[in-house]
Design a protein that fits this description.
Helix 1 packs across helix 5, helix 4 crosses helix 8 and helix 7 crosses helix 8. With 231 residues, the chain is α/β, with parallel strands linked by helices. The protein starts with a strand and ends with a strand. Helix content is 43%, strand content 23%. A hairpin with a 4-residue loop joins strand 7 and strand 8. The chain has eight helices and twelve strands. It folds into two domains: 122 residues, Response regulator (Rossmann fold, 3-Layer(aba) Sandwich), CATH 3.40.50; 101 residues, Arc Repressor Mutant, subunit A, CATH 1.10.10.10.
Length: 231
Amino acid sequence: MPYILIADDNQDITDILSTYVAKEGFEPVVAFDGLEAIRKYTQYNPVLVLLDVMMPKKDGYQVCREIRERSDVPVILITARGEDFERIMGLDIGADDYIVKPFSPSEVMARIRAILRRISRQESDNPKNILNISTITINIEEYSLHISGTKVPLTKKEIETMWVLAGNPNKVFTRDNLLDSLWGIDYYGDSRTVDSHIKRLRAKLDAVPHPEWRIKTIWGLGYKFELGEQG
């Protein structure tokens, strides 16, 4: 039975989430601080992690970063604070979704199902793990991207963004398209999430010259991967 790791220092929350996770056919594994979360993640290799931001010993952001150094397992951050900059930071370090307390356990399970469906769909839709276009090479299995042979350090979500955009050159994606494709149709974010995400992605890509292509803003609509000399 696949495991889901639930890391939160509030036992009432872990008990409720454990009950709902078990009803969905998963085996819940519980941790009450950041160090225990890392240890149990290593021990059980869960298919998804529910991670409270405010935990003792190591907070959720630290735990998420350490998990991302070794795995692309889906991570949902849970916090009592819902400021935009915190949500964006969580997504930028590699989280797949962000839930603000108080929450409905049914909503949490809907988010889990949406993420796992999206991953399953991506795996079936993309049997080839490597994309070569212009000066870019993306390995979606290893979550790596190279420009002209130089590796560019990107987060999981940034790699997925490039996989979608570069895999469909000159196709315009609206912000809603990108939200649905990358965060799932049940994600409750808005266009600011996409704009901030693209801004950070461009800054990292610009560390390596790439006059052959660009991520172009289509004003009032969205973005596309454009081949050809930049004007």
